[in-house]
Amino acid sequence: VRGVRYPMQLKLGAAELATVAEWDLDVALPAEQKGTHMSRFVAWLESLEQAIDATELRRQMGLMLARLHASSGRIEARFPFFLRKRAPVSGVESLLEYQGRWIVEAKEGEVAVWAEAVVPVKSLCPCSKKIAEYGAHNQRSHITISTRLSGEMTLDELVRMAEEEASCEVFGLLKRPDEKWVTERAYDNPKFVEDLVRDIALRLMREPRIAEWTVKSENFESIHNHSAYAEISGRND
Length: 237
What we know:
Elements: E1 4-12, E2 15-27, H1 39-47, H2 54-67, E3 73-86, E4 93-107, E5 110-124, H3 126-131, E6 138-149, H4 155-165, E7 168-169, H5 176-187, H6 193-205, E8 210-220, E9 227-235
Antiparallel strand pairs: 1-2, 2-3, 3-4, 4-5, 5-6, 5-7, 6-8, 8-9
C-alpha cells in the first residue's frame, strides 16, 4: 500500500512529538500466494503505540512481517516535524518546520534503517563577497542528509549537523537585533553549495553510528532563476 496518511508519535531523545506521516508499506509475496492481506497493513498502523525511533522501527518491522506472514518487506514514513528554537540575541522562541523520513528494509534476515532530514539553512556566496563592495548575495538552502544507521541516532542530531555547517541557521521568528546577528554571521561564514555538502560529509565520516550517508544541498539562488545543487555520498562500514 502507498500514501497512507496516519498519525505518528516521533521520538527525539527524551521528547515525543506528534505528527502525521505518509506511509508506504510492502512485503515480498511468495510465488504460490495470489495476493497479500492489505487490510493487515492498516491494522499494523493501528497497533503502533510506542513513539518511533530507529530502535522501535526495527522492532515494528518484525511485527509487521509476522502479521503478514512474510520474510522480507519495507516501511517508509515521510512526515513534517517541528523543533522549538531560540533567537540568537533576543532569545524569543518559535517553531521551525523540518521534513523527516524513516525507511526500514528487511531482507534475508537483515534489517537496515535509514534516517533522513531536510533542513532549511542560509548560505552566502564567497565569490560575491569577494568581488562586491557593498555586500554579498545570499539565499535559503535545503540540505538533505540521508543516513543508514549502525547505531541509535535521532533526527534532531542530523538537523544540528546541517545548521552548524551552514553559513547560518534560520529561525521562525527574529527581532531586529537577531536579524543583524544572522546577517553578519552569514557574511563572516560564506560557503558555496559544494562547501556545504563537503563540510557536512566530514562530520558524517567521523560518526560511528552511521554506516552509509548521502548529503544534498539545493540553494535557491537569489540572483538566478535556477538553483545551485551539490551532492556527495560515502560509506563508513
